[in-house]
Amino acid sequence: MECTHISGDDFHESGADQGSSRRPNAVNIIKIVKTLGSLALLCFSTVITISLIFNRSTELSRISPWLALFILWGIIIWLAMMEGQQACLVGLTGVVDHLVYKDSHPKAYKGTQLAHRGDNLNKYVTGRQLMVLLSVFVINLAGAPSPGSQNTAFALPIAVQEIFLSSGVAIILMTCLIGQLPPQINASHCQIDFINNYFALFTLYTALIIEFSGLIMRVT
After folding, report:
1. Tens-place pLDDT, residues 160-174
2. What distance in Å separates the CA atoms of residue 218 and residue 208, rounded to the nearest whole number?
């Protein structure tokens, strides 16, 4: 499903920018270089992290490399939903009439009705924060090198291993570039579409249950 947002300013400016957008300039070249560089770092970090897991050099991979890999990607995907869902629910607080998408996006409507009832949004944010902290902790257990382990991923130079593995840069890049920044940006543009699924409802209910349990207190 494609999300399209057209404003009057975009319509008037598109004609003026159409000619200039066809010609590559220094800004576009720099943007392309930055994008390719970021993608290369992400791919490199992902490959050496998976190699680390199958070398049984992380805490969870000592039990089972496949279990560690499954948990790593599962938690990163769930973290992406947490990050994007918060942007959606907070962004939709200003919608005057949620009935406009009740029939077209029933799951999103159900979620927003629950989240915006009373102080449930504050409760959700509180529970979600604990979920994010626990997610990062589990991601480190699954993908970060354990103390005393031999980081022999692809026989890389010691300096490269120290920078990307021992310092945690590789797992940080994976977490940020997959589980945090892209879902936040996509959710801000497609707020209703992003949460129109049962996965979003499950995440919302989980955050509310965690807050209700009293595991974390909130200040209001």
Report:
1. 888 888 888 999 999
2. 12
